[in-house]
Amino acid sequence: MITELSSRLLQRIEEAAAQAPVILRQGTVAEEAITQVYQEYKARWITVRIALGNDHRGLAVKQAIIELLKKLGHDYHDFGTNGTESVDYPDFARLVAKAVSAGEFDYGILVCSTGIGMCIAANKVNGIRAALCHNVHDAIRSRQHNDANVLCMAGESIELNVNLEIVTAFLATAFEGGRHLRRLEKVQALEKE
Q1: 56, 77, 134, 145: which is the annotated catalytic residue?
Q2: What is the per-residue pLDDT across 151-170, written as a single tens digit (0 to 9) for each?
Q3: Are 89 and 130 in contact (CB under 8 A)?
Q4: Which of 25, 50, 63, 173 is most buried (most C-beta within 10 Å)?
Q5: What global pTM score does this model have?
Q6: Do 114 and 154 meet the contact criterion of CB atoms below 8 Å apart?
Q7: In the annotation, is 112 catalytic?
Q8: Residue 18 burial by CB count (10 A; 0-12/13-18/19+): exposed, middle or buried?
Q9: Which of 24, 33, 64, 70 is nearest to 50 (CA)?
Q10: Is 145 a catalytic residue?
């Protein structure tokens, strides 16, 4: 399913490649990989189950993400919070991370002021590979190379449209495996030490 947002995503990738250092310029491996991810996304959008959580400072972004997920046809569960009264982010990070780790959801998305606290808390749960992403490139790489299963986002320092592009890229990108699988297995071994 191709939406206006996905068209803007490709445009943004192209703009970023034009402004980035030589490594992302046209014809490079990185530029080709990002373009390939987008093409795969267009060809095979699938429905996934997503666990959402936020603190009081991530509420507005989470609400926009819910609207995006509805448009994209994904299933989701909102673990809260749903108000602006001050709450403790670890409580919501735990709920989402435990649900993803248990296999109840394919991915989690967590939003707080900076995303840092949510990321730290979520990564304390075995089986979670939470990534704090500030741009589309980070989101793509977190999935391709790290098989991230929880996306952590900044609710206050990133523009809303950029956050929505990050979500779209994260959900559309597959884990590459290969040499990255070997590295991921080493990370998973750390959980058993």
Answers
A1: 145
A2: 999 999 888 889 999 999 99
A3: no
A4: 50
A5: 0.76
A6: yes
A7: yes
A8: exposed
A9: 70
A10: yes
